[in-house]
């Protein structure tokens, strides 16, 4: 949620065909996204700190940054001593990531396709930030992330808070559906809405155990910079949630 989101004109924010597809939705506004997200409230003061905390110490560890965007998370991981391999289905996002984090390795890759360039048990940690809702076959993707993750590793993912999404969109909270909307900078996106129990079930089906779930609060220092957003997200489930999951040894 990099910017405030506004519905399409009346009648157009509705259930779409039950797929999002593999088109790189962020490609056409990748440069604007980087400018906004670098120091923006939702990214710099809210989601990135929560995900990095759940990852824990990364020094000397190999981290797969799945759906890496313009490399903002990867840059912090490299600064903390990680070896980072990133991927995104947006060619422009990958260009930006390579420019900003030359110490990491990035490639254009659609997560709908197997990670056939990564061996089994080859990464220590997987970061999957704010991209789950853009996938149609989430279990297959999570299984592939499980395959490349070492048995003692962990997956950290963040997603839109399902309660906040239901409060915004209405309808049946328990019915997964695709919606389309325009964010306040004119960025049009299509994404899945799904209840929390479905995300947990998908993780389980992919061979993960949920170790920790966080409903993060913004960094305290952001209160002066973004007082309204800070006050809202310290009281309401209006933003994101973050999950740390580990491989199920029984799988």
From TrEMBL:
Q: Which GO terms describe its molecular function?
A: S-adenosylmethionine-dependent methyltransferase activity
- Indicate the segments forming the Methyltransferase type domain, all copies: 64-157
The residue stretches assigned to a coiled coil in this entry are none
Give GO BP annotations, semicolon-separated.
methylation
Q: SUPFAM superfamilies per the record?
A: S-adenosyl-L-methionine-dependent methyltransferases
The UniProt entry, under Pfam families, shows:
Methyltransf_11
Say yes or no: keyword Transmembrane present.
Answer: no
Q: Which UniProt keywords apply?
A: Methyltransferase, Transferase, Ubiquinone
Record's superkingdom? Bacteria
Question: Does the record carry Transferase as a key word?
Answer: yes
State what protein this is by name: Ubiquinone/menaquinone biosynthesis C-methylase UbiE
